[in-house]
Specification:
Blueprint lengths: L1 E11 L5 E12 L4 E5 L6 H8 L7 E6 L2 E2 L7 H7 E4 L11 H11 L5 H14 L15 H13 L5 E5 L10 H13 L3 E5 L3 H7 L2 E6 L2 E6 L1 H6 L4 H7 L2 E8 L6 H14 L3 H17 L7 E8 L5 E8 L13 H9 L3 E6 L3 E7 L1
Parallel strand pairs: 3-8, 3-9, 6-7, 7-8
Antiparallel strand pairs: 1-2, 1-4, 4-5, 9-10, 11-12, 12-13, 13-15, 14-15
Bound molecules: adenosine-5'-diphosphate and magnesium ion.
Adenosine-5'-diphosphate (ADP) binds next to helix 1.
Length: 361
Amino acid sequence: MITASHLTKIYTQPDGKQFAALNDVSFHIGRSEVVSIIGPSGAGKSTLLRTLNLLDPPTSGQILVDGQDTQAPDYPLHLLRKRMGMVFSQFNLFPRLSVLENVALAPCKVLGMPKQQAEELAMEMLDKVSLGEKAQAMPSTLSSGQQQRTAIARCLAMRPEIILFDEPLSALDPTMVGEVQSVIRNLAREGMTMLIVTHNMKFAHDIATRTFFLRGGELVEDNTPVILFNTPQHPETLAFVQQIRQLAFDIESRHFDFYDMMSQIRKFCIRYDITEKMNNILHIAEEMLLLMSDSRTPIHIAINHSELSTDTTVDILHKGVTVSPLERPGVDELAVMIIRGMSHGIQTETTDEGIRLTFAI
Ligand SMILES: Nc1ncnc2c1ncn2[C@@H]1O[C@H](COP(=O)(O)OP(=O)(O)O)[C@@H](O)[C@H]1O
Ligand SMILES: [Mg+2]
């Protein structure tokens, strides 16, 4: 369906230097394929999507859609835009139009559809994303998940053959990630061809028939998600997908900003989509710090999360002590019970530096 050959996109930076946001990228995507695109920030993921629908044409290289060269002078560009829908992180709904009007607008204005017909179509698309009930609502009254589903309905109303998603989950309230994922999953089931840029590794793994790993403008690996996430062919891919995310703090004095630490832990959980573990992590950190609060010795605390295995641990190193803070004489037994209940398992290790406790969450 789409064949990209040797796509390169050069940007000229403010200092006049040339910079390849995409470097010799080639692939073929067949109908009904779902491709998840992962890679570090700045890898060229958004550039790839913008280049494909010619919002930002490539500097060199070719894009064939159903065998036709999209850069040929007589290629009907407006048709390409109609065939390739785009959904962004930011929903970009028109605030003064109702949900229904937002969805009906493009069929009316771009396709010249009579208003009533466009509204019937819009209603059908809203039902598809389970928002029929909200047709008359104004966007500002909707949750972030409902707004993103409206944006998807608006895209569907143009009857696209391909949808390009650029981080569709990243501006959502964490509790609403699931509903948007379900809508995208339903589209996949119906055979929609989709390219989905996402930082959510589990989603990238589960939704796709193929995964691209981009880095530094290059398509480093194009593989099935099972291979790419488990036994990738390139060491760079392995390093990226296995990356353990870590948030660490050194508590060296009583002047430590405890509240800021808690906020950072919350942000970390939201960022890596582990909000269901957030309360346990926060409680363990809080209760443990209370148990150790009479001690003057430094404490190192780290939250580790593997995006690949979805395992999360809280690692607490109590420096300069030889007895676990959970086993000290006179310890608050109730606090210890609470802490044990918050974890799947606790490992205690005596190190040269002190006692290290690892809580599996
Ligand atoms: N319009 C532009 N002008 C100059 N540089 C750009 C432009 N768009 C993107 N870039 C640069 O291209 C690189 C890739 O950007 P982008 O595709 O947005 O990355 P990603 O989506 O993977 O985070 C980045 O270094 C970015 O700064
Ligand atoms: Mg991007």
